[in-house]
Amino acid sequence: MTDMSPSVRHCRHRRRIGFWQKSYRQYFSIANCVNKLATNILGVIPEDSYYKDQSHLSMEERVKTNYDHPSSMDHSLLFQHLQMLKSGQPIELPVYSYVEHTRTPNTIHVEPKKVIILEGILLLTDARLRNELNFSIFVDTPLDICLMRRIKRDVNERGRSMDSVMAQYQKTRAPDVPAVY
């Protein structure tokens, strides 16, 4: 441990903050703005990086996955990575392809930081993750705004059609679908 900086070596008091809400876009912006203000002490871990690897499934099977349900997440790996960061060890953050609906072979090297921000819509569905957070922040956004942000993100950034986004929303996220939160 001699090659670690004093701020990393003495991180018994690392803080973990969870950002979560009904829609992805706003808390992502908040977490990233906070991260840009203090990159030397803050690290942001997006839950979206921890969708389960689906490379063993056909594309037809992958697109049927309900990505708004906890079963789509590899929370065990996220928990393991959080434990590693907490103990001062770096992690290799998975990279998820929204076009291929699975993880890529690439990873992003993440060094431990004094404050770790976890952000995602399903974080609090996992008791292990909930118990690791020093506090959580919920950003309440009207559902119509959530839907507009989802359409914009999925069409512009994830190569999806508006019809596919609307079909998924109606099946998995519409207000009358039972909540898992």
Characterization of the model:
The structure is a single chain. The N and C termini lie far apart (40 Å). The protein has helices at residues 6-9, 24-37, 59-62, 75-86, 127-132, 143-157, 162-173; strands at residues 15-21, 42-46, 91-97, 102-110, 115-119, 135-139. A 4-stranded parallel beta sheet has the order 2-5-1-6, sandwiched between helices. It has a two-stranded antiparallel sheet with strand order 3-4. It contains 7 helices and 6 strands, in the order αβαβααβββαβαα. It has one domain (6-173): Rossmann fold (3-Layer(aba) Sandwich), CATH 3.40.50. Strand 3 and strand 4 form a beta hairpin. With 181 residues, the protein is of the alpha/beta class. It comes from Klebsiella pneumoniae. Its EC number is 2.7.1.48. Residues 48-176 form the Phosphoribulokinase/uridine kinase domain.
